[in-house]
């Protein structure tokens, strides 16, 4: 049997955490042959709820689950962690200034970066889910300099999956036959869902999404805003933000990163920009990536039209502003 992999979930007593931990324990993140040890972190006010999550994990008798640590101690939570899913954070409440929310999250991610830096496995892979996801990931990267920068990513796979879902509904094809959409930029309403390279597998071979939809007006307006606003639409209907779709997408993100993307398929991940596609280096920006042997690489050479360029630049602009705001909170 394989050695267990230790997975940290922060904010584990929250909505996403509750959906995510059983998925991990069932093997949906690392495969059904891979034993796992779960480390669950939350804060003191949620300690009882966190303990209930641990009780339910024990009660589920998951064959792959080799241990559970539920704690409010950041050092204990981060010790020997191979994969860290950062879901805990400070939510924006009505009437709060952006700067105040940023300031709370900057201090959380600065502290958790230090704990991961000192106590996690040296090759620990990190996925930032908590918002503002890209900028929290950047702060974590800054304060955990010994973790390789390629190991620090943020979640835009939910947006990617939402884009696949919209195309599948529109064309009445199975979602699994739709491939290679791209989410560029920030996990926010400025993200750019791009279908210019997306395809659908049909009986008659592979067709482009633009050709099959045959309605650029819809693809350039309603499709884009539906994906951008999907999170808000869920909040409006559910009175609470997307939870199991976020959890499922987090599993997709880590599974593809660790086990590899299928041949001919790319996915979207928020990663540290190296300047590809003219995106300012030093931002965590969502790109199309392929993964092999636990490493991602940005898909190169895709043609970018003027419409896409403007949208990719606008979301980069927002990330540059967020970065400046985050840095202004550091002192
Ligand atoms: P939630 O409020 O139900 O859970 C958050 C949990 O984090 C709470 O249990 C809270 O006590 C805990 N927490 C707060 N500060 C913490 C700290 N310093 N250390 C550890 N835990 C801490 O929220 P939910 O719905 O689970 O969402 C979590 C985050 O994920 C939010 O920031 C949300 O905006 C974000 N999100 C991101 C998505 C993405 O695609 N990137 C999609 C959906 C949500």
Automatic annotation (TrEMBL):
One MF annotation (Gene Ontology) recorded for this entry: L-malate dehydrogenase (NAD+) activity
GO terms under biological process: malate metabolic process; tricarboxylic acid cycle
EC supergroup of this enzyme: oxidoreductase
Signal sequence, start to end: none
Family annotation (SUPFAM superfamilies): LDH C-terminal domain-like, NAD(P)-binding Rossmann-fold domains
Active site as annotated: 187
Keyword Oxidoreductase: yes
Domain Lactate/malate dehydrogenase C-terminal: 156-324
Keyword Signal: no
Domain of life: Eukaryota
Entries under CDD domains matching the protein: MDH_cytoplasmic_cytosolic
Gene3D superfamilies in alphabetical order: Lactate dehydrogenase/glycoside hydrolase, family 4, C-terminal (3.90.110.10), NAD(P)-binding Rossmann-like Domain (3.40.50.720)
Annotated positions binding NAD(+): 11-17, 42, 105, 129-131
Start and end residues of each Lactate/malate dehydrogenase N-terminal domain: 6-152
E.C. number(s) listed in UniProt: 1.1.1.37
Entry keyword set: NAD, Oxidoreductase, Tricarboxylic acid cycle
Database matches in Pfam families: Ldh_1_C (PF02866), Ldh_1_N (PF00056)
Family indicated by similarity: Belongs to the LDH/MDH superfamily. MDH type 2 family.
Name of the featured protein: Malate dehydrogenase
UniProt organism field: Heracleum sosnowskyi
